[in-house]
Design a protein that fits this description.
Pfam families: C-JID. By secondary structure, the protein is mainly beta. It has 3 helices and 19 strands.
Length: 352
Amino acid sequence: LNMEGCTELESLPKRLGKQKAPQELVLSGCSKLESVPTDVKDMKHLRLLLLDGTRIRKIPKIKSLKCLCLSRNIAMVNLQDNLKDFSNLKCLVMKNCENLRYLPSLPKCLEYLNVYGCERLESVENPLVADRLTLFLDRSEELRSTFLFTNCHNLFQDAKDSISTYAKWKCHRLAVECYEQDIVSGAFFNTCYPGYIVPSWFDHQAVGSVLEPRLEPHWYNTMLSGIALCAVVSFHENQDPIIGSFSVKCTLQFENEDGSLRFDCDIGCLNEPGMIEADHVFIGYVTCSRLKDHHSIPIHHPTTVKMQFHLTDACKSKVVDCGFRLMYTQSRGCLLEEEVNANFTKLYLGLL
């Protein structure tokens, strides 16, 4: 059912929910529309609901809904608290909601969130995603997810900390799942938000776009499951609107006395044309498939890693700070790099 651009539409039929067949309801640009009938929740097959450009403040809980768009909504200030109960919601787009100030906990099945340009957004719930303490992924949950807070310049520091904490937890969760299911490729997570500090949980950090940590012996082992990367990108020197998309990437080169390996990783990308103001923090997780398929890096020797962070199609912007962390896991949870090294040392000394 498509009513896009019906600018004089003020209300919908109260018995709209009696229509069982529709899978998509499009109300984009219905600028006078302020509500959706509560019985819409009874539309058992509704998958897509587009409410961009409306004045709707509350959406009935539609269990079947997978994609919800609320972009350009000028009436909504606080997104409803029961959104976490939308048990099948995969995609939530709320770009340029100029009065939005608060995000509640989001559904644990959510794979894509975009609140680009919500300039009055101040706070997000902690935890950002409901039930995030569940250790393992549901088998139906996607291993690729993106959460974008681009140009949300009024975020409180607590909100940025909550986003960073969720990113750390998500990287851990993916590492555990990839280890348990023996997944060597396909898992990916990225997020970005306004900021100028690499989160403290990245144990290797550097000023600028080059990072060269030295990894101790036994850094590569069966518990290594993924790599978390962080780049702080400055857009201050880029006074021209960005046209099209650009990506944040990292070239990694591992070297020791017996071999070397070089490959590229994606940290994230943006597809929003226009100005990006202030610095932004980009965080990405990738699996270690390139390492697991390559045997030229022995685990018994110290290894030097050179990381070069760079941007595509945004040459006037630059990476000003960067960070790196190896993600280890075992069946009871995740380990930090220093914990792995300590365990191997104890094992060597016969203390384990």
